[in-house]
Each structure stands twice: as C-alpha cells, then as structure tokens.
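Sequence in, structure out.
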Amino acid sequence: MALLSLDDRRRASFGRIGRKEDSLYEVTENPDGTLLLTPVVVMSSAERDLLAGPPSLREALLDTLEGVRTSSRRVSVERPAHG
C-alpha cells in the first residue's frame, strides 16, 4: 500500500506509483469519495477510424510498418559522369 498526500494546492506527486508508460489518466470520483485513476490514450479521429475499420486495412498497415522497421535496403543514387 502507498499513501499519497496532497500539498496546500491539492496537488499530488505520484513518484513511483503507477507504470512509467502511463502519463495520462481519467479520474472518476465515486460516491464514497474514492478516486479511480484509469490510464488513457488519446488518439485522433483518423486513428479511431482506422481501428474501427475493416481488419484487412489494419493488417495491411501493420505489414507495411513492419516492413519499414525491418528494411535494411540501401538506396544508391547514380550520379551523372562529368566529362
């Protein structure tokens, strides 16, 4: 168990509480006064639409992104010879 204290401006420092990858939370105040912190991710409407779209579109995008991450192809540019 961890105790969290508030300063005179009602601010809290979470320090080592929670996961490092979570930095944005939705706060729900329950009728008994308890606070529920739920990690959230904010996304654009375009990202939402992509996630709600057909699975084949998501799979194609993931395949493309994976190809970009694992690609080690070198691109060479031929320069014209000066004569």
